[in-house]
Design a protein that fits this description.
The structure is a homodimer.
Chain A (H helix, E strand, L loop, with lengths): L1 H9 L4 E12 L2 E8 L9 E2 L1 E4 L6 H13 L7 E6 L10 E11 L5 H6 L2 E5 L10 H18 L11 E2 H12 L5 H9 L4 E8 L7 E6 L1 H6 L6
Amino acid sequence: MIKSNRTEQTIQQIKVSVDCIIFGFNDNKLELLLIKKKDEPEKGKWSLIGGFVGFDEDLDEAANRILSDLSGLQDIYMEQIKTFGKVNRCSFDRVISSTYSAMILKSSYTEDQIEKYNAQWFPITEVPELIFDHNDMVDIAIKRMRRRVRNFPIAFNLLPSKFTLPQLQALYEGILDETLDKRNFRRKVSQMNYLVKLEEKDMTESRRGAFLYRFDEAWYKKEKHFNL
Amino acid sequence: MIKSNRTEQTIQQIKVSVDCIIFGFNDNKLELLLIKKKDEPEKGKWSLIGGFVGFDEDLDEAANRILSDLSGLQDIYMEQIKTFGKVNRCSFDRVISSTYSAMILKSSYTEDQIEKYNAQWFPITEVPELIFDHNDMVDIAIKRMRRRVRNFPIAFNLLPSKFTLPQLQALYEGILDETLDKRNFRRKVSQMNYLVKLEEKDMTESRRGAFLYRFDEAWYKKEKHFNL
């Protein structure tokens, strides 16, 4: 018995986990994918998509493996957000957790998957109480994502390959949760050299139609992202 | 013997460390603080300021404790940058490491401390080969820091409380390692509402003198940091 206790002490080490924060864009609104815990001690509670990092897997790999194992989502490029390491953040273990995040089209996650994985989408204005410090994780991911959206063209993969400026503005407004001044928005957009105006028009929304645009990734990569 | 081997296996867990990336600003140039490892197996090699996180300390606390223990630097606000978690990043152990970074005035770190802690400043254009993936850590921290400097007034604590626009421009040029167009720079600066022009002039650099400015933190906090 004494021996076993000593072993327990020896292995009193910090555990490492990953939590995935998946935002879904739907009808110009942002939602958050959560799963209901199946096991004690957190059974029945809402949680981010998280699990422990294996001894033999890279941290980034672990994030993708855990996302796939627990939600079925595959081939999602996630960005590392922040590592949470308060001593008491988890109620029963010392765990530090790296958060990863991605923004997808809600429609790319099927109803079958939702059911299979005990998952559910929540509007980000109505996120329920989550386990541990997961609500803090979500808050920080939302802030980071909004900041990035203002500075990088990371939201373009949520649009069709050809889109109108009203569509683009609605996308930004949905993500940022604020109304943008149309003239101001157009002025900013006109400075984005990686937005290419096409000769085609979309005629579905108005009689005059709206010019279609496409995102030129090559142009974007050539440019410097920031200009002081 | 068998028992001991089993114990070894049981405790084959990931270790957690922190690495601190301290940039020093001096004579309008950025430098990086490194320490020479004293112990095997990395003895004599250059390294970031890093160590293991204790079981009973928050990750952020660990970063500050390690920075203080290994460099003597205290009360430095560091920002978490990124967590590095490749399986083989450390040659003899499985360690994931969270990086933290700060920018200080080089002059605030004394020669006595440099000697006591086996430390040395290197121009960031002349960073030597570092242990593990520390060179990658530095590269990412530099990029992040430059991006932040373009978007947030994080560099103002490196200036005297009253400063001229040429001083401000030299600071930005030093950090970004590029020459900025003076007119463009002034135009951008004029949009920073948190820069307050004073009635005083600095007369040391030219006969006409240059108006002094101060940074108004309260104004900055009221404002939104980004404008789409």
